[in-house]
Amino acid sequence: MSYKKGYYKPVSLQQKFNQMVLQNNWWKTDQPVVVAVSTGIDSMTLLYLLEHLDQCSPQIIVAYVDHCLREQSKRETVFIQQYCSDHHLKLVQAVWNRKQHPQHGIEAAAREFRYRFFRRVLKENQATVLLTAHHGDDLAETMLMKLVRGGQIESLIGIAEQRPTSFGSVVRPLLHFSKKEIHQFASSVHIKWFEDETNRDLTIQRNRFRHQIVPKMKQENPRMLKHFVDYSKQLKTLIEVNQELMRPTAEEILSSFKPGRQLTLSRKLMTSYSDDVQISLVKFLIEKKLKIQNIPLNQFEEIHRLMTNTAKPQGTLSLPNGWLFIKSYQKLTIVKKVDNHVIKPKNDEQFMVILDRWYSLKDGSRFGVFTTKILGNYKITTFHLSEKDFPLIIRHWRNGDRLRLKNGGHQKVSRVLINAKIPQEDRLDTNVLMTSQDEILAVPGLKSAFFSENLGKVFYLIEDKKQSTSERKGIDNE
């Protein structure tokens, strides 16, 4: 074709590709990169473009998987072997045997097999860049499918041009090109490829979007693919900026953090923010701090409802992969569940109290029953006890335990724990002080019973409070 004076020859796809590689600096000259090749038109075109770079040419390592899903896969394997031999390219291949195919979810299983293989190839070749041949049409199809399917806003990014991973990064250099551009270029330079016959199967959702929906959208606006790429980049930027701004606030409300195990938040600080910020903070901490993924949006809303429900001071929600969200008054905890069952306290555990001796509680406070008063800033309760009341016993509290009140009535120990806002998990270790006649004298650190009788000898329950009893974990014998 000739061009008249004043007109310019159109820039070829190869030239655009060369320019993008230089601008983005995805790799350096002679740096090893792994290229995922399927023998389809997209990956074979990517391979051609890489081989014909005029600058910044990498060391190409072709990674190919025979999925054993099609009859022609054997011919494809022979073809890529011959191609790499002729072009002096290193080829690493894997076979996903039919006996490894699952009954259901074969597409997801195939992807998992591929990327496990790619990670191995990268490691063995000391490479940190994986190239895939996703293009603009793939991005539009993915974004539309995600929009129809529903889910987290992050999923609408679709396919990122560059994505960091544990091994380095995944780069999609063809994302700015359409399928049509790739096809025209491949035909013009006589690239050979294999067509996957399943690409025409309209029982597959992606194919319905590819052949029925996206073409109509292109008719409405031929620049539609560019807009999808732009929207994807804008959304990715907005999410990253939001997370960066969220980080200091998340650190502020974080009380404690054990990587991979649990984190604890201040409910008071959390609920000082608007509802939307609260949900965003919880989402940020769960996904970025604890690395818990795939939590549906409705679960974040459930967490928020429990967190802000003043009529329910305690509660637990199950999260994916054995995680729990626990609300306990002003403390919010996200913790990895160790077992699938709750270990109940051994209610028969008890021991005899030795007079004139301190016993420590796990919150740092202590108590003891003494025959004489001790000077100091202590809480002192006086009891008149007879010989039949001894020995005094310490044991775990039980349902039905009651304290005698000044008005002649009784109060359940369970109510004492609720009023004191003792977290549910800490109540299991709460102890009571009782006589040998099973009369409850006190819940050490919390409340004592009232006795009007002045029969027997005087004894003193002395309590030395060091910390808030709401954090009490149990009792230790000093």
TrEMBL record:
One GO BP: tRNA modification
Coiled coil: none
EC number: 6.3.4.19
Residue ranges of domain Lysidine-tRNA(Ile) synthetase C-terminal in the record: 392-461
First-listed, main subcellular location of the protein, grouped into a coarse class: cytoplasm
Top EC group: ligase
UniProtKB keywords: ATP-binding, Cytoplasm, Ligase, Nucleotide-binding, tRNA processing
Listed SMART domains: TilS_C
Highest taxon listed in the record's lineage: Bacteria
GO molecular function annotation: ATP binding; tRNA(Ile)-lysidine synthase activity
Reactions that this protein is recorded to catalyse: cytidine(34) in tRNA(Ile2) + L-lysine + ATP = lysidine(34) in tRNA(Ile2) + AMP + diphosphate + H(+)
Entry GO CC: cytoplasm
Subcellular location: Cytoplasm
Gene3D superfamilies named in the record: HUPs
Family recorded in the similarity comment: Belongs to the tRNA(Ile)-lysidine synthase family.
Described purpose of this protein according to its UniProt entry: Ligates lysine onto the cytidine present at position 34 of the AUA codon-specific tRNA(Ile) that contains the anticodon CAU, in an ATP-dependent manner. Cytidine is converted to lysidine, thus changing the amino acid specificity of the tRNA from methionine to isoleucine.
Record protein name field: tRNA(Ile)-lysidine synthase
Organism: Lentilactobacillus hilgardii (Lactobacillus hilgardii)
Annotated gene: tilS
